[in-house]
Design brief:
single chain, about 160 residues, about 65% helix
Length: about 160
């Protein structure tokens, strides 16, 4: 159970300051309402626009080029993974994938530790065979209300 805390702590620490800072945005909007002078109003408005533009790309500034459907599909996939216009979205996506990989590695490490504690020989091939056995023989579908252990669970 302790190994499942490590990815959670990584997620909380790395994703804390990513995304839109709503508190800053709301404070600037409240100060915009109370400002009497025009030049301060304009500077706060420019700040709000730049803050929002930082997270949301302007689609009007994109070049309108003709592409084939395959090129558009490939560019869409690259844009989703890398995030060419918005680095904050790609940061969160890559962080999310990294955390999921940590969960998977933690699971395999715990399987390895259990096999060591039970003094069984552990190989990756045996683990893959046991996963195939679980998912293909209907072990999960046989009795979902088993009194011994829930067969479908998410830790």
């Amino acid at each position: 159970a302790l190994l499942y805390l490590l990815p959670r702590l990584c997620w909380r620490s790395f994703s804390r300051h990513s995304g839109i800072d709503v508190k800053n945005l709301m404070e600037a909007a409240q100060s915009l309402k109370s400002v009497k002078r025009f030049h301060k109003h304009k500077t706060i408005m420019n700040y709000l626009v730049s803050l929002i533009h930082q997270y949301v790309g302007d689609p009007r500034k994109k070049s309108k080029q003709e592409h084939s459907q395959i090129n558009a599909y490939i560019q869409g996939i690259i844009h989703c993974v890398i995030g060419t216009t918005n680095t904050f979205n790609s940061y969160l996506l890559l962080l999310y994938l990294f955390i999921k990989i940590l969960f998977i590695l933690s699971t395999f490490f715990q399987l390895y530790a259990i096999r060591l504690l039970l003094e069984q020989k552990w190989t990756v091939d045996d683990t893959i065979k046991s996963f195939r056995h679980i998912f293909t023989t209907g072990v999960l579908r046989s009795n979902p209300l088993s009194k011994y252990f829930p067969k479908i669970s998410m830790c």
